[in-house]
Amino acid sequence: MFKHTKIGATIGPSCADPLVLEKMVKAGMNFARLNFAHGTHESNGKLLNTVRAVEEKTGEPLAILQDLQGPRIRLGAMPAEGVAIKEGDTVTLNTALTTYAGGDWPVDYPELHRFVKPGERVLIDDGRVELSVTAVTGSQITGSVAQGGVVTSHKGINLPDSVLEIPALSEKDRADLRFGVKSEVDMVGLSFVSSAKDILDVRFLIQQYLKEEGLTRAQPIFIIAKIERRVAVENLTEILDAADGIMVARGDLGLELPAAQVPLVQKRIIDAANALAKPVIVATQMLNSMQTSRRPTRAEVSDVANAVIDHADALLLTNETASGEFPVLAVETMADIIVTTERSSYDDTDLPAHHKGVSLDLAIADMSRLLADELSAKLILAASISGETGRLISHVRPSLPILVATSTPASWRQLNLSWGVKPFMMLQCQSIEELVERSIDYIKHHKIARKGDKMIIVAGEPVGQAGNVNLVEVREIS
C-alpha cells in the first residue's frame, strides 16, 4: 500500500515503547516529532535514541523533528482549585506578579503590558476565557470578561489583536536547540515565527552551535517555520523564502484568526509552499477524538481528506499518538483515509504553472511527470545528494512513486517528508548506468516493479549533484 502523503507522529508516553513505535512505522508513520514544550533533555534524549533504534530495526527512514516551544505567554501560579469568573466581571492581569495572591492575576511575560491596548482581546486557555481590555496602567492590564470559566495555573495567553515584539527564541529554546544540534536532529520546528529574520537567526545559531561543539554535518538541519500567528500569514512570502519547510499549526492560528478563515489560509499556505517545492505539514487536532475513541468523528475524517486534496506533503498527529490511548490505530486510520482519498479523482492535480525562464532542473521535473503519464511508467528514479532533485519531482505531483537514491543519512530522512518520495540509501554512483543497475536491485528486492515495467530516470553527471540534472530517460526494468 503506497501512499503519497506522509504521516508524522508526536512521540510521548503512549508510544515510547519501541514495539509500539515499530507498529506505528509499519502502519505508515514517516517522521517523528519531539515536543520540547514537555520533558527534559534526558527524557527527550531517550525518546530520540528510541526512534533511531526503531529506524535501524525497520530500515525505514525516520526524520526527527525537534519542535521548539517558542515564547509562549502564560499565566503564573494560580490557586489549585482555579479562579472562577463570569461574563461582565472585571479582571486585572499584572506582569509584575508571579503568583496569585487574591487580587491581580500573574503573567509570566514581564513586558506584555507594553504591547496591549484598550479594545484588544486577551484569550486564555485556548480561547475558553476571553477578556476585552479596558485599561493599561503600568504593569496592570484590566479587562472585562466576555467569556467566563475557571482559570488554573500556567494557562496559555493569546493576543489576536496585538502586535507583539517578542523574539521567536526564548532562553529555554536556545538551550534546547543546542541539545538538538548535538543530538543530530534532522529538522527544527520554529514556533511563533513572525518574519524571515527569525529563521535566519536560528540558521546562524545552528552554525554557531556546530562550531562550538566541534561538529560537522553533510546535510544542514532543516528549519520548519510554524505558521501560527496572524503576522506570519501576512509575511508568508518572505518566511517561505527563508525556511526549508512550513507547518500549518492550526491550534494557535485558529485563535489568532477568525475561525472561518483558517481553512482558506491553510489552502493558501499549502499552495504557496507547493509552488516553491518546499514541504508543507498540516497539524493540530486532525484525529483529536482518537485520544480516547477508537473511531474518529466524520468531521475529522473530512479534515484529513481535504488536507490530502489540498496536496499537503505531510499530516501530523499530536496528542493522538503522544498521550492518546490508541497511537497505532490513529496512524492506521490516517493512512487509510490518505490512501482512499489519493485513489479518488478528487486528488488529481495539474502541473504547476511556471513562468518562462524556469531552471533546467524544474523543466526536467515537469517532463518526467508528463512522460510517466504518457507511457504508464511504474516509477520515477532519481539520485540526489541534498534531496533537492527529489523535492522538485515531488513538487510536480506525479501519480507514481518517486524513488530517490541518496548517500547521506540526513537527506534520506528529510526526503521522507516530501509527498510521493520513497528515499533509499546508496553509495554515491559515478555514472547513470551504475545508478540504474543498483536501483533495479533495490526495486526488485522491494517488489516495487516487475521485469518489463517502464521507469523514468531523472539524472545528470556527476550523479546526484544539484545543478547537474540534464537528462530524462525511459528504461525498461530488466
Describe what this molecule looks like in 3D.
- The protein is α/β, with parallel strands linked by helices and 478 residues long.
- It has 15 helices and 22 strands.
- The protein has 3 domains: 6-70 and 168-343, TIM Barrel (Alpha-Beta Barrel); 73-158, M1 Pyruvate Kinase, Domain 3, CATH 2.40.33; 360-476, Pyruvate Kinase, Chain: A, domain 1 (3-Layer(aba) Sandwich).
- Helix 1 (18-27) runs parallel beside helix 11.
- The protein starts with 5 loop residues before the first strand and ends with a strand.
- A hairpin with a 4-residue loop joins strand 8 (121-124) and strand 9 (129-137).
- The model has no long low-confidence stretch (mean pLDDT 92).
- An 8-stranded parallel barrel has the order 1-2-3-13-14-15-16-17, surrounded by 9 helices.
CATH fold descriptor of the largest domain: TIM Barrel
By CATH's scheme, which homologous superfamily of the largest domain applies?
Phosphoenolpyruvate-binding domains
Counting DSSP E segments of at least 2 residues, the number of strands comes to 22
- Assign the CATH architecture of the largest domain: Alpha-Beta Barrel
Rg of Cα set: 24 Å
Beta fraction: 15-25%
Describe the largest sheet.
Answer: 8 strands, parallel, barrel
Query: Can you identify the CATH class of the largest domain?
Result: Alpha Beta
Overall morphology: elongated
Q: What is the strand arrangement across the widest sheet?
A: 1-2-3-13-14-15-16-17
- Average of pLDDT: 92
Unreliable segments of 5+ consecutive residues: none
Compute the separation of the termini in Å: 24 Å
How many individual domains? 3
Number of helices: 15
Helical content class: 25-40%
Content-based structural category? alpha/beta
